[in-house]
Amino acid sequence: MNAQRLMTILTGLLTLGGCGAAAGTGAERPEVLFQDNCGVCHSPTGAGNPDIAAPAIAGLPEWYVKAQLHKFRDGVRGAHAADAEGLRMRPMARTLPAADVDPIAAYVASLPPVAPDRVIAGDVEKGKAAYAVCLACHGAEGKGMEALNAPPIVQLDDWYVASTLHKFKSGVRGANPKDVTGMQMAPMAKTLKTDEDVVNVVAYIATLSGGN
């Protein structure tokens, strides 16, 4: 991504703080809130933008989106110095009035999921074996379980899953004592001892959605 494009995106991000106030109160408000506050990075359809490491979020469960927005707002997520993407996301979440979190989360959940990016190739059979530790929470099909606060991972971009696993492994995520679910995930990620292990499990997850 060239410097001019990056500057355009960052300039847009810095001007979003007052956008929500202009969204009105009608039925269109959740969509306007999303487009003004989220669409710049995650795209108008929620398909994400890998050029700026913004993952696809369309169709993620309302409960999960809501939880993550509150984590960013409260500094539970996105406060680590090594979390470049989280540090960018945190101020965006904090510009939202608390009352706007629920309608945005509901709108994200209503968006049709998009085909995830598949850019990582690994040993699927080894990944399947490593995935055994993920089964209890994320399920055999990677669809997650709300009762366990485990999000669906089958619809996520593989580069984002890999990045997230590395963050949990290194303590960039899941180290804050207020992040209960993150602290549960961190030791699971650490069972993947090497970068190759991460690549392999991500490659296997891609097969659960028929990805290539």
Rg over alpha carbons: 17 Å
- Name the CATH architecture of the largest domain: Orthogonal Bundle
Distance N to C terminus: 25 Å
The major sheet is characterized as: none
Q: Into which percent range does the helicity of residues fall?
A: 40-55%
**Fourth-tier CATH superfamily name of the largest domain:** Cytochrome c-like domain
Unreliable stretches? 1-21
Tell me the name of the CATH class of the largest domain: Mainly Alpha
**Number of individual domains:** 2
Strand content: under 5%
Look at the structure and give the mean pLDDT.
Answer: 88
* SSE order, one letter for each helix or strand: HHHHHHHHHHH
**What is the molecular shape?**
globular
* Number of E-state strands: 0
Give the helix tally.
Answer: 11
> Which structural class is indicated by helix and strand composition?
mainly alpha
CATH topology of the largest domain: Cytochrome Bc1 Complex, Chain D, domain 2
Can you tag this structure with a few keywords?
Cytochrome Bc1 Complex, Chain D, domain 2, single chain, 212 residues
